Amino acid sequence: MSKFSPFDATLWYATAAPAPQTVPLAGRVQADVCIVGAGYTGLTTALELVRKGVNVVLLEAEQAGFGGSGRNAGHCTPTFTHFSLPELRKLLGEPWAERLIARQTQANARVSAMIERYQIQCEWQQNGYVQAAARPGAIDAIKRKVEEYNAVGARTRFVDKAEVEAITGSPRFHGGWFHSEAGHLNPLGYARGLARAVQQEGAILHTGSKVTNVTREGLRWVAHTADGSVVADKVIFTTGAYTVEGWPKLDQSFKIMRVFVAATQPLSEEERRSVLPENTTMHDGRGDIYVYKYNAEGRIVASMFPMGRRGRDLAYTHQVMSDRLKWLHPQIRREIRWEYFWFGELDMQARTIPRLYGLAPGIVALTGLSGRGVPTGSMLGGILSEWALDVPEQELSLKVEPLHKAPFYMSFGPQLTLRYYRARDWLKTRMDGAPLPPHA
Q: EC no. (predicted)?
C-alpha cells in the first residue's frame, strides 16, 4: 500500500459538503500574518485573527483539510490520551499545564460554537463518548479518570456494566467512562466549513499553493510559492504531519505514525437500534485500540493502528476489523463489508501534546498533535492567534521552544508501545478471567 492513501478514496471525500471556491496564489500580496497549512489549526488561527481585524493570507499546498484534518475518523473527544492529568502537571509544570488542560477540556464547546455560528454542515452529533473497562481490573483506572476530569470542570461519569451495555449495545464491557461533552462529525466537512467561514470573515485562502521557503526582506518575511509570494509581518506554520519543505528541518521535529480508518456498508435500522443505539463514540478500552462510531448514513467508521499483517494485508485487515466488531456486537449476524479504507499520518513526538516552536523572530510552527486532531486542532487556533497578537510568551498556554529534532527512538517507540499494551492487555485480561477478543 502507498504511503499516502488517495485523498479522494476516503468516505469523507465522498460525503462532505463541497469545498469553497479557491485559486492558487499568483503574484505578490501583502498581509499582517501569513499562515501555512489549512487544516484545523491553521483555519481556526485564521478565523480568530481575521475576526479581530488582522489581515490574514492562508496558504495550502493541496486543498483545505487535505491532511489529517480530512482523513481522521471524526471523533471529537476533548481529553488527553497518553498521560493522566497529574502526569501532565508534572511534565509541563505550572502554569502551563493548567492552561493547556483548561483549553483542551473545553475544546468541544469551541467546536460546537463554530459549527453553530457558521452553520457548518458536517454531521455534528454531540451524544458523548464511552471508554470501556474491557476487564474488571480496569474499573479503578476509569474511576480515577472521572475524578480527574470532573475536578477541572468536565462533565463525565462512571457507568456500570448495565448502563454501558444500554448505551453501547455491547455485552462485553464491565463498566466505562462516559464523557457527555464528546461528539463526532464528518471531519472533512468540518474543515471545509471552517475554510468557508475564514473566507466569509474576510481572510484570503489560496489552495494549490505550496510554500517552498521563507526569506527575510527588511523587517518582514516573504513566503514563496511556485507562482507568487506573501509579504507578512509574521508567519505561522501549521502543516503538521504533512509538512513538506517550507522551513529547514521542520519536518524532522516529529516522526510519522500511521493509522487506518475503514467504513462498513450502512447498517439496517434494526441493527442500529441495538448497536450504538445512542449514537455515541466508542473506545473498546484496550491499549491496542479499536474506536468506532456511525456516520450520517449509518456506516460504522472504525480505526486501528497497523501492526504486523494488520494494515499491510487488506483482506486480513478487513477480517480483523470484522471479527472485532462482531465480537463486541454479537447481534450483527450478516457479513460486514468494509466499503472504504484509507490511511492517515500522525505527527508524533514523545510528549504526545502539541509543540510550539519559535523558528525566528516573527515565525512559529506548531507540530506534534500526536493524533488528537479535531478538538486539539480547534483549540490551538486560540493559542496561535494570541501569539500573533503579541500576547507575552509567558502568558501563552504553550511554551515557545527552539526547534529540535525528534529523538531517534520515536521512529519505533510508538509501535513498541502498542505491542506492549497489547501484551499487557492479554495478560491482565487472562488474570481477570475475562474473555479475549479475536486476534488479541
A: 1.-.-.-
Q: 92 by DSSP, 3-state: which? A: helix
Q: What is the pLDDT of residues 388-416, one digit of tens each?
A: 999 999 999 999 999 999 999 989 999 99
Q: Which residues contact 140 (CB under 8 A, 6 or more apart)?
A: none
Cβ atoms of 175 and 161 within 8 Å: the answer is: yes
Give residue for cell 523587517. Answer: 219
Q: What is the pTM of this model?
A: 0.96
C-alpha to C-alpha distance for 353 and 36, rounded to whole angstroms: 20
Domains in the chain, CATH or no CATH each: 7-73+188-254+350-406 (3.50.50.60), 129-180+256-348+413-432 (3.30.9.10)
CB-based burial of residue 86 (10 Å sphere; 0-12 exposed, 13-18 middle, 19+ buried)?
exposed
Q: How far apart (Å, rounded) are the C-alpha atoms in residues 91 and 80? A: 13
Q: How far apart are CA 346 and CA 4, in angstroms?
A: 12
- The Cα-based distances of 256 to 88, 116, 148, 277, 415 in angstroms read 23, 33, 30, 35, 11
66-76 pLDDT tens trace:
999 999 999 99
Sequence length of the chain is 440
